[in-house]
Design a protein that fits this description.
It is found in: Cytoplasm. Its EC number is 2.7.8.7. One of its GO terms (molecular function) is holo-[acyl-carrier-protein] synthase activity. InterPro entries: 4-PPantetheinyl_Trfase_dom, 4-PPantetheinyl_Trfase_dom_sf, ACPS, Ppantetheine-prot_Trfase_dom. Transfers the 4'-phosphopantetheine moiety from coenzyme A to a Ser of acyl-carrier-protein. Helix 1 packs across helix 4. This protein has 5 helices and 5 strands, in the order βααααββββα. The protein has a single domain (about 1-130), classed as Ribosomal Protein L22, Chain A (Alpha-Beta Complex), CATH 3.90.470.20. Helix content is about 40%, strand content about 30%. It starts with a strand and ends in a 5-residue tail after the last helix. By secondary structure, it is an alpha+beta fold. The strands form 2 sheets. The chain has a 3-stranded antiparallel β-sheet with strand order 1-5-4. It is globular, with a radius of gyration of 15 Å. The protein has helices at about 10-20, 25-30, 30-40, 45-65, 120-130; strands at about 1-10, 75-80, 85-90, 95-105, 110-115.
């Protein structure tokens, strides 16, 4: 059962401007693992990565219904890619299933996040078997 849906759209050029004005922006919004991953990208792909992660975290906070702040911080949310390239979101303390989609077009990135209440079987599998990513 879906318990939250969040959507966010961000201008990549706006994020580029923020990066030039605020040198600590990356360390504020990206986890150390995300910061390592973004360093492997250049040019347009670097900016798309940062804007996509920012937007996806905003979308998650909207799905949660709390926004970024007291209940969830930028550093609680990590989005890395599976071997297939699919983005995978992990959130500290979140037991429910999270799906994220990130898409870029021109100067914009759009993200959608769903939070789905995990069934007892999914919770059991995640705890004792683990979820394999392809």
């Amino acid at each position: 059962m879906i318990i939250g849906i969040g959507n966010d759209m961000e201008s990549i050029s706006r994020i580029e401007g923020v990066l030039s004005r605020r040198p600590n922006f990356l360390s504020t919004i990206l986890t150390p693992a995300e910061q390592e991953a973004v360093q492997k990208r250049t040019g347009k792909h670097y900016l798309e990565f940062v804007a996509g992660r920012f937007s996806a975290k905003e979308a998650y906070a909207k799905a949660l219904g709390t926004g970024i702040g007291r209940d969830v911080s930028w550093q609680d949310i990590s989005i890395l890619n599976a071997k297939s390239g699919r983005p995978v979101m992990k959130v500290v303390g979140q037991k429910n299933r999270i799906e994220v989609a990130i898409t870029h077009s021109g100067d914009y990135v759009n993200t959608v996040v769903t939070i789905e209440r995990a069934s007892w079987l999914q919770r059991f599998a995640a705890r004792f078997i683990g979820r394999k990513e392809n």
